[in-house]
Amino acid sequence: DTEVTQTPKHLVMGMTNKKSLKCEQHMGHRAMYWYKQKAKKPPELMFVYSYEKLSINESVPSRFSPECPNSSLLNLHLHALQPEDSALYLCASSQSLHSNQPQHFGDGTRLSIL
Amino acid sequence: AQTVTQSQPEMSVQEAETVTLSCTYDTSESDYYLFWYKQPPSRQMILVIRQEAYKQQNATENRFSVNFQKAAKSFSLKISDSQLGDAAMYFCAYRSALETGNQFYFGTGTSLTVIP
């Protein structure tokens, strides 16, 4: 069982829809991350939150909007996505931003844009 | 930015045999961390093993061990007594000890098949 829970597991949406991806962890971790992963490629970092504050935005288009309402929850709000945004979206968490802390990943949300 | 290279897109191993996955990286830093992650078809990225650059001793976790050659900037993963459950995509990752934000630099991955 994963300690980082992502919902939904699958999502199909049209380009005009608004939807949200949710990530939750109860390990007391204070750093949380969103990654995008295309098939047979490594994950690409999108956003990093530390103590509920946005720490890194890797030049992600504004149609992706992250939100960290508390230390256990991380959301990714989606609006007006493009077909090329279809991918696996992974959430991860770590105790802190310290480099030696491993990241714990969720199972991901498989997103398909019609 | 650092670069991490995994030169073997695909590998296969007979069950119970040993296989080594290669990883090289490019950095001018002296302090950093290296990781191997496994991603089975279930999609979750699972930490396999971690190595601190300042430690000369190679990390070991049960059937998994690394051969860390700092001067050569090489970080290979050895899987002994391979099991069917080891079949997965394996990613090597580098993280600087100096940067904030915990940025991982991933290699392109090696797809491992275990043959019964």
What does this protein look like?
- The complex is a heterodimer of chains A (114) and B (116).
- Chain A is 0% helix and 56% strand.
- Chain A is built from no helices and eleven strands.
- By secondary structure, chain B is mainly beta.
- Chain B is globular, with a radius of gyration of 14 Å.
- In chain B, strands 2, 5, 6, 10, 11 and 12 form a six-stranded mixed beta sheet that branches. In chain B, strands 3-9-8-7 form a four-stranded antiparallel beta sheet, with no helix packed on it. A two-stranded antiparallel sheet of chain B has the order 1-4.
- The A-B interface holds A 2, 31, 33, 40-43, 45, 48, 50, 55-56, 88, 90, 92, 94, 97-108, 110 and B 32-33, 35, 37, 42-47, 50, 52, 89, 91, 95-104, 106-109, 111.
Condensed summary:
The complex is a heterodimer of chains A (114) and B (116). In chain A, 0% of the residues lie in helices and 56% in strands.
Strand content of chain A: over 45%
End-to-end Cα distance of chain A, whole Å, is 31 Å
Low-confidence stretches of chain B: none
Total helices of chain B: the number is 0
How do the helices and strands follow one another from N- to C-terminus of chain A?
EEEEEEEEEEE
> Structural class from helices and strands of chain A?
mainly beta
Net shape of chain A: globular
The chain-level mean pLDDT of chain A equals: 92
Compute the CA-based radius of gyration of chain A. Answer: 13 Å
The share of residues in extended strands of chain B comes to over 45%
Proportion of residues in helical segments of chain B: under 10%
Structural class label of chain B: mainly beta
Largest sheet of chain B: 6 strands, mixed
- Kindly, what is the distance between the CA atoms of the first and last residues of chain B, rounded to a whole number of angstroms? 40 Å
Number of strands of chain A: 11
- Main beta-sheet annotation of chain A: 7 strands, mixed
CA radius of gyration of chain B? 14 Å
Q: What is the residue-averaged pLDDT of chain B?
A: 92
Overall body shape of chain B: globular
Secondary-structure element order of chain B, N to C:
EEEEEEEEEEEE
Number of helices of chain A: 0
